[in-house]
Amino acid sequence: MKKKRSSEAKFLATLVEVNGALAAARSPHAGLQRGLEILRDLYGVSRTSVVLRRTDSGRLEIEASEGLTVEGRRASWTPGEGITGQVVQTGRPVVVPRISQEPSFLNRTGRRLKSRTSETTFICVPIPGHRKPIGAMNVDLPFQKDRDYERDLQLFRVVATMFGQALRVKQLVEAERQRLLDENIHLKEELKQRYDFSHIIGTSSPMRQVFEQIARVASTNTTVLIRGESGTGKELIAHAIHYNSTRAKKPFVKVSCAALPDSLIESELFGYEKGAFTGATARKKGRFERADRGTLFLDEIGDINLSTQVKLLRVLQEREFERLGGTEPVKVDVRLIAATNTDLEKAIAAKTFREDLHYRLNVFSIFVPPLRERKTDILLLADSFLEKYAAEHGKAIKRISTPAIDMLMAYHWPGNVRELENIIERAALVCDGSVVHAHHLPPTLQTAEASGTVSEISLSESVGAYERDLIQDALKTTRGNRLQAAKLLNSTERIISYKVKKHGIDCRRFRE
Ligand SMILES: Nc1ncnc2c1ncn2[C@@H]1O[C@H](COP(=O)(O)OP(=O)(O)OP(=O)(O)O)[C@@H](O)[C@H]1O
Ligand SMILES: [Mg+2]
User: Fold this and answer.
1) Cα distance between residue 17 and residue 40, in whole Å
2) pLDDT at position 509, please?
3) Contact 338/329 with Cβ under 8 angstroms?
4) Which residue has the higher pLDDT, 231 or 74?
5) What is the DSSP letter of 433?
6) Are 292 and 321 in contact (CB under 8 A)?
7) If you count DSSP H runs as helices and E runs as strands, how many of each does the chain have, helices first?
8) pLDDT above 60 (res 450)
């Protein structure tokens, strides 16, 4: 009776301890290991191991063990092989009272079977998984004639179930983590595709900021005000916002406010009813209506007259308007993007632009920096325009010469990207070789380094510039070697050296 009670206490104590160990462990592996130690310390288990099925190979390998030799810990089974393999396959436990008398015992973990002094009892229980066992727990106990195998088996089955749960929690957490990782990668990929503004060129930090702003605002319905000097790419950005928004498949309608006379702008924006004025022979939809569910781009908003500003303000506030000569309100779902190169604050001060309209438009503003403030983009833009126009004009132009690049870099670009594009198109037209030279660029740039203003250039200066170009180019090809450069130009080293000095060319520059 006393013995029974003490064995009962041992049974419960073991379960409580194992449970606590699994709960406290930082990883399931550590929990299993601690659990096995408890079986050894509290339950007198001599050797024990947890064997799990590897998802990749399908083999059964030891995950945690107590009392095994180093070699024993490396043991593995194929499913169905030996007692362990059978237990995992069938899900039924096996009890071998005396292993010395069991022929199917594989002895993978290297027990000393021949020992006469001690006989071993072996118990193998499945570790349950979602549907099938995910592994097994092997236990060696010292053989005892009157051992209650049922009771022991019961304990080990409960412990194995606890192990199985701990491992399953880990699997679920791992699967969830993997799912989140996958989802994250997918979302990033989607973002990259959606916000791939590959047609807008620029890697300078102000342009990167612009890209970030586009990405941030595109998917919303927010009104956007794009500001920047003429030719900086405001229209391009308005396009990018629309085509990266949920309205991408709906119309993008542009209104050039500066191009429309005051008398026409309102009928263009809001449309008119039949008979609204002489010549209005039928009802006509305005741009607002045509942009329904899409984007309306109001370019040069700074040029809009005051009475139209009032009407525009009302549409922005109420999302509805009346056609000219009409009384029935028209409701529209339009996202507004406005652009301007005029200083709206000044216009407000001069009372030519309404402050309340400015306030409505300026919900999210993007400032496009002038080209002179993002010099690192110049070369990228120039190369891309060169590729485009060379192809367009059927020319095999490969590159821009160093002196020409220097000039592009030194110029202050009052017309911004548009001016650069025009200049490169012209250069591609006049260029007859594979390289754009300084003399292919307009005179505006020839003296740009000095003043940034237009000036006449003399024949001798032009010839000199051309000569300098040719020499620099040859030096570039020969990495600064004057003798070879002279040969390329069908000249002598003496002459080249003289010209190098005369034009102040720094040969070291080409050696790097
Ligand atoms: N970052 C850029 N990458 C490639 N092309 C650009 C870039 N910025 C501008 N461009 C090109 O420069 C030209 C002028 O751009 P855009 O018409 O968008 O300028 P804008 O700011 O609207 O000028 P404006 O105020 O005079 O109307 C266009 O041909 C456009 O394709
Ligand atoms: Mg524009």
Assistant:
1) 12
2) 79
3) no
4) 231
5) S
6) no
7) 19, 17
8) no
50: Cβ–Cβ under 8 A, 6 or more apart, which residues? 32, 36, 62, 63, 64, 65, 127, 135, 136, 137, 138, 163
Neighbours of 435 (CB within 10 A): 16
SS3 119: coil
CB 227 within 8 A of CB 203: no
CA distance 336 to 317: 12
Dist. CA 164–CA 140, nearest whole Å:
20
Q: Token pair for residue 256?
A: 């050039």
Give the distance (Å) from ligand 1 centre to CA of residue 379: 16
- Report which DSSP code applies to 393: T
How does pLDDT run across 81-124, given as a tens digit for each residue?
888 999 999 999 999 988 887 777 767 666 655 555 678 899 99
From the CA of 229, give the closest atom in ligand 1. Answer: 25
Q: Is 20:38 a contact under the CB 8 Å cutoff? A: no
Ligand with minimal distance to 238 CA: 1
What phi, psi does 153 have (nearest 5°)? -60, -40
Residue 351 Cα to ligand 2 middle (Å): 24
163 pLDDT above the threshold of 90:
yes
The sign one gets for the Cα dihedral 301, 304, 309, 315 is negative
Average pLDDT over residues 399-409: 91
172-226 pLDDT per residue, tens:
887 788 888 887 777 766 555 554 566 889 888 899 899 989 989 998 999 999 9
Ligand 1 binding residues, C-beta < 6 A? 200-202, 228, 230-236, 341, 381, 417-418, 421
pLDDT tens-digit map of 247-294: 988 889 999 998 888 888 999 999 999 888 888 888 889 999 999 999
Please provide residue 365's backbone torsions phi and psi, each rounded to the nearest 5 degrees: -115, 140
